[in-house]
Amino acid sequence: MFDFEYQLGILPDEPGVYLMKNELGEIIYVGKAKSLKKRVKSYFQNTKNHSEKTRIMVSKVVEFEYILTDSEMEALILEMNLIKKYSPRYNVLLKDDKHFPFIKITTNEDFPRVYVTRTYAKDGNRYFGPYTDVTAVHETLDTIKKIYPIRTCKRVILEMGAPQKPCLNYHLGLCKAPCAGYINKKDYGLMIEDIIRLLEGKDVVVKKSLKEDMMKAAEALDFEQAAKLRDKLLSIEKTVQKQKVFTGKIHDEDYIGLFKDEEDVSVQVFTVRDGKLMGREHHILKSFAKEEDQVLLEEFMKSYYSGTAFVPKNIYTRLPVEDPILKEWLEMRRGKGVELLSPKRGPKLNMLSLAESNARATLEQFKEKILSEYDQNMRALEELATLLELEDLPERMEAFDISNIQGVDSVGTMIVYEGRKFKKSDYRRFKIKTVKGANDYDSMREILTRRFQRGLKEVMEIQERKLEYTQGKFSIFPDLLIMDGGKGQVNIAKEVLRDLNLEIPIIGLVKDEAHRSRGIIYEGVEYSLKGRGEAKNLLTRIQDEVHRFAITYHRTLRDKRTLHSILEDIPRVGAKRRKNLMLKFGSIEAIRQASLVELSKTPGIDEETARSIRKYFHGEKQ
Questions:
Q1: Which residues, including other chains, have CB under 8 Å from residue 457's CB and lie 6 or more apart?
Q2: Eight-state DSSP code of residue 500
């Protein structure tokens, strides 16, 4: 049993990161502190001063851990790494986890390429973005390629390399064919420099250069070349007209606007580069409306700027940023000074207000989307109830799945679909305790038995103590059970419910050759989903979600086991050195890819230890 009084009493008055855990051992919150002693204690004292979200979070904490760091900056970096790794439920997370596109220029090549990518890496190339408007990115790239005939192939082309046969793009006038030696590295590089200036918003410089070249061509009576340069100028001006000119001062700036309704928060980021509004991004933070604006702002900035390729010189917010270590970290990310400003009047305030107005509009659009999805899901439930001849629409459905690799780290998961949407707060994970090896049927029997036995126990306690049903984690039973494994798992579920004297409808998903749901097993009869598109789509989404949740949990357990075994097996690497390595590199794969020099620059890692690490991963000679 975790002794809170004792553990709080021995907390060190030093900087570090703390991890709050629930009764399942899940990390539900990660935070940093200048003083762990003061910060962690504050959660369990004077709770009436906490926000509603914090009070709920604290009520679920059954134990906590902490990691000491040498400085508050180290704590900030570690905190963000852990939030990315565990996605704790009560941390502010960017809900849209897709990777936004960048425009990449391969400047480490003799003849660089320009293309769209969703992967950003510190590889010596130039990246612009990320962009939220994918269509605009491709339109911009198409315009660039019309103006500048750069190569699009993946050939390895060296300046002094053997000439190759040019492709069709050369004959169409879309490429200067550096592969055939028809353009040298210097002249090709001038085109790339212009493209970089355009993407940086420095179109004035590019247009001035083109105008000068156009005049020279006209004076030399080369009217064909002059016309080509004129067309390039028109294309650039057309592109630039799409960008809102904001200020005459040439600065790189971000404007962060927040808007909250009664439940959710919308954040809009306007990116201004060289005085032009180059783009905007929006993020929805669900169920964070009751959090303080100051906390929301600073947590969002940490999450947002930890994933961007660029930090601007000026960042404008309605509320002043009070955390000095956040400013220090942003400056470290940028490599230069960063100003965190809260304008009180003038065009800066107008731009910030515009960002906030857009945040409001985005949230309203988000709500409309939710309502649209609600109607679609209602139709799906009506189709399902009609198909199965159910008297009432199933308000709450629970789906179960088992995940393992050759019987190792076998886990079970339960997801919940309630109120026409996935209810992630009720998702549950189960480590398989009584089954050895890959036996999905017995594993399913175990997790169903544990789920419903626990639920019955909670119901009895609630009735005896006259509590609210919401005080039990398993006390609310489903209207419909969904088994992913078909007839076999349906029979297992029936046996479990019969033994516990429970009556709950059970369906099993019948798969096609592509492992997608084509029908339903119910009461021993198979029902086809053909012609019932809404119901089929809903069941497919439930199937995908339970698979995703099971695989994610299994991967987490596997990664913990791998992390433990790999780092502890490296000679000369003890607990402190393991901590320093993870602080610097963030993952096993990054440590594996690190050079001898990079490893040697890690605090506490001398050259001999660095060689030991390299030898462990790569078998290199000492």
A1: none
A2: T
Task: Report the C-alpha gap between 416 and 419 in whole angstroms.
Answer: 10
Find, among 271, 275, 300, 151, the residue nearest to 203 by Cα: 275
Higher pLDDT, 246 or 510: 510
User: What letter represents residue 551's amino acid?
Assistant: I
Identify the three-state secondary structure at position 35.
Answer: coil
The Cα–Cα gap between 214 and 196 comes to 21
Average pLDDT score over residue span 539-547: 87
Place of tokens 């909670």: 458
In three-state secondary structure terms, 104 is strand
pLDDT tens digits, 148-170: 899 989 888 988 888 888 888 88
Q: List alpha helices for 260-417, DSSP H.
A: 293-305, 324-334, 346-388
Q: From 253, 419, 211, select the one nearest 341 (Cα to Cα).
A: 253
> DSSP letters along 381-399, please?
HHHHHHHHT-SS--SEEEE
Residues in Cβ contact with 419 at an 8 Å cutoff, skipping those fewer than 6 apart:
395
Q: How many CB atoms lie within 10 A of CB 25?
A: 10
The two tokens of residue 196 are 């970089």
Q: Which residues pair with 370 in a beta bridge?
A: none
Q: What tens digit of pLDDT does each residue of 397-421 get?
A: 999 988 765 545 578 889 999 877 8
Q: Considering the entire predicted model, what is its pTM?
A: 0.45
Joined together, the tokens standing for residue 1 give 């049993």
| Cβ neighbours of residue 84 closer than 8 Å, sequence gap 6 or more | 306
pLDDT in tens, 100-122: 678 899 999 999 999 988 777 77
CA distances (Å), origin 521, targets 154, 217, 482, 501, 526 = 51, 77, 10, 22, 4
Cβ neighbors of 140 (< 8 A, separation 6 or more) are 103, 199, 239
Compute the distance between CA of residue 31 and CA of residue 77 in angstroms, rounded to an integer. Answer: 11
The phi-psi region of residue 15 (left if phi > 0; otherwise alpha if psi is between -120 and 50; otherwise beta) is beta
